[in-house]
Amino acid sequence: YSVGHISGAHFNPAVTIAFAITKRFPWKQVPAYVAAQVLGSTLASGTLRLIFQGHQNHFPGTIPTGNPWQSFAIEFIITFYLMFVISGVATDNRAIGELAGLAVGATVLLNVMFAGPISGASMNPARSIGPAIVSAQFKHLWVYIFAPTLGAVCGALVYNVIRFTDKPLREITKSSSFLKGVGNK
After folding, report:
1. I need a surface site. Which of 38, 39, 61, 155 has the fewest CB within 10 A?
2. CA distance 141 to 33
3. How far is 83 from 88, CA to CA, in rounded Å?
């Protein structure tokens, strides 16, 4: 978040693509952002490989523990949740912006606790591509490219459908007959 004011804190290609599809990020910048995200992940993975000279056959990336389609489904679901939360706290001006990092971090934590043992809980194609490149292990990498991207796009689209409006909350509550009726009783 320390570079949020510079880059929008885009660390995840799935999130960047979802923002572009929902017209909250310019398409012309997507290739450069995705390239930077994958390059950053690859450099970080390479740095860790140099620092920790452990077993060279140990793969630090994400791989399914069982059926790759099960991991695909899990990655889709948890990235959907993550993007839904990001859309709510980062793009809706009615949300409390100061708590965005806490909400996103808590979502990542819960996703990792639930899905980590099954799929590795990547939620981020760059997070999986970097270690795969450094280790030259690409088995089932498609799961971690397509599932998070589809999950993020669907999460952003669903949030936009239920958002209803960009009006501030105080304007919505003024016009809501339900809330007026509750206040009069």
Report:
1. 39
2. 20
3. 8
Structure tokens belonging to residue 39:
């390059």
Structure-token pair, residue 138 = 């690409």
Number of domains in the chain: 1
3-state SS assignment for residue 153: helix
End-to-end CA distance of the chain: 45
Ordered mean pLDDT values, 10 residues apiece, the chain (185 residues):
68 95 93 96 92 72 90 97 93 77 92 94 96 92 97 96 68 51 48
Place of tokens 């056959």: 57
**Residue ranges making up the domain that contains 99:** 4-51+59-165
| Residue corresponding to tokens 């992940």 | 41
Contacts of residue 94, Cβ cutoff 8 Å, sequence gap at least 6: 168, 169
8-state DSSP, 55: -
Rounded Cα distance between 99 and 105, Å, is 10
Residue 172 in domain: no
Query: What six digits make up the tokens of 90?
Result: 């980062």
Give CA–CA dist 44/35, Å, rounded. Answer: 14
